[in-house]
Amino acid sequence: QKEVEQNSGPLSVPEGAIASLNCTYSDRGSQSFFWYRQYSGKSPELIMFIYSNGDKEDGRFTAQLNKASQYVSLLIRDSQPSDSATYLCAVNQGGGGSQGNLIFGKGTKLSVKP
Amino acid sequence: DTGVSQNPRHKITKRGQNVTFRCDPISEHNRLYWYRQTLGQGPEFLTYFQNEAQLEKSRLLSDRFSAERPKGSFSTLEIQRTEQGDSAMYLCASSLNPVDTIYFGEGSWLTVV
Q: In chain A, whose CA is at the least distance from the CA of B102?
């Protein structure tokens, strides 16, 4: 059974701080990793994806992947109250870079305090 | 609005009744996915289509669930003889191809009473 594990939180950080969200996965064969943001009552929206070991930066967001440790993280710099949401880590089940057949973690709820 | 459209957005039904949800993907998107999400959980993959062909179904998809995409455009997800455990948000997503970004619709909330 392939699994994706996340700390459910809530994770509370002050405005302007760095928020660090973590995720581990069970299947060593996984190749593609995704972070989604989901506001309460809304559908998930893709923030970033990462395929290779190391860091990938996009604006205030940095995804980090360590395949040896089966660990993915998301850093949010200069956190804003509008970043308050649930962050979902997802891993592809399909081959290659297929993005749609995903296993999601339960999500980490982030709260950014003004 | 040219995003993924789902209808109805909310459905309350009595246990044992059948319900059907419709998903209209983004135009020309070949791949269409169905997920289910319950409170406090991440979305769970149910099934996906490549054009009109249903290529994979999760073991979560019991015999009471059936999905179709007859002309390779819109899709329907039918749940027969609903149970309280079926209460969830049913999410549809589409992508242009397997490695492209998937876009979720706003979801269809089902409450079985």
A: A100
